[in-house]
Structure prediction request, 126 residues.
Amino acid sequence: QVQLVESGGGLVQAGGSLRLSCAASGRTFNNYAMGWFRQAPGKDRESVAAISWSGGSTYYADSVKGRSTISRDNAKNTVYLQMNSLKPEDTAVYYCAAANAYSDIPYRGSRDYGYWGRGTQVTVSS
Prediction:
């Protein structure tokens, strides 16, 4: 199993930036594709970004494309989500997730992910 702990959330004004981090422990980190998801109050959880085990392929939801960058450092067992030009609609709890990597692709669906962190709150004020 792999344990995931998110950090870096907080309160930021619209137009600001945050970098979320997710530290993994347990099994070999580069056995896993990684993803970031978010859930706003009253809404379903949605995929934000994903990255393949090697870091060579990424995926972004249309809502964050061009404003966010997902990256990973396999030596540090950490995945990051850099978010820029934040909007009030980005307010949500952000979750890091790990999926067993059977191929070097970013997994988009939440059902692909078997391991989840507890989340970090991101609040964007207008």
In short: The mean pLDDT is 96.
